[in-house]
Amino acid sequence: MRPADGVDDYLRDPIGRYLIREGFLHWYATAELCGFIVWQRADEPFIRRLVEVLDVERTPNAPHASLVDLRRLESPDPSAFGLFVNYMQSRERDFAVSVKRQALVRPEGIIGAVVGGFYRLLRPSYPNEVFTDSLQAMAWLGLPEVRAAQLLAELNALVSEATGQSPLLQLLHQVLRLRLVDASLSDTAREMGMSERTLQRRLKEAGTSFQAELNAVQVRTAQQLLLETDMKLTAVAVEVGCASLQHFSSLFRKLVGESPSTWRDQHRRVSSPQAPASSNADAKE
Length: 285
Prior knowledge:
Mean pLDDT: 85
Largest sheet: 7 strands, mixed
Low-confidence stretches: 271-285
CATH class of the largest domain: Alpha Beta
Strand order of the largest sheet: 1-2-3-4-5-6-7
């Protein structure tokens, strides 16, 4: 597939091309098969960027199968989720004509449960199924296994290039997000389908280590919780697998450069400038 030169160019001529925007990739392998991949937090600005491109699939003269890959979704924002459902419902008649069937690949865990409920809210008229495996989803859409594997490899390479992260680290982070409490090298390697030694070797070749990547996922998950919830710092520390508040604060400061409470206050002021400062002393260190 060839890259498109912006949204307008892609909307005019999508077949055999792809478009990468902040947080997602939309692709049209053939006139009969397209889809999109998401790899960031789905907030309202993200959803607005996405739906601008999704209109490309409202093509009644080219009915197609569609693959929605949300395995890398970091967290769904409730208001953004509602915005997306409203968009799809307002265009239900168009998509009912243009989409022959749609497969959704969801992540594991709580995020996956939320994502899996999408079709219960939308109730589309076209056939739809939810999967946790992309190859199974492709098979259900009618793509032969060899062709599906080739296409998925191409798409994964595009995502790796767009995110600046290797497929190994993408998979590692995906596994770690589900097992931050008591995460271990042996369990993680087994989940990734390789030995401990192989995982350690491949991480060393990539210039990193298991502990460094675990810490990175812990801090990134903590940032989401600090921004999106009112959880106390002690609870956040436990949620991301830190043995104590002191350990969590030290790790956060090391990777971010400031304390968790300072980071939360600054970023909440940016996202909600009219909100009054919290007076809850328990939310501080």
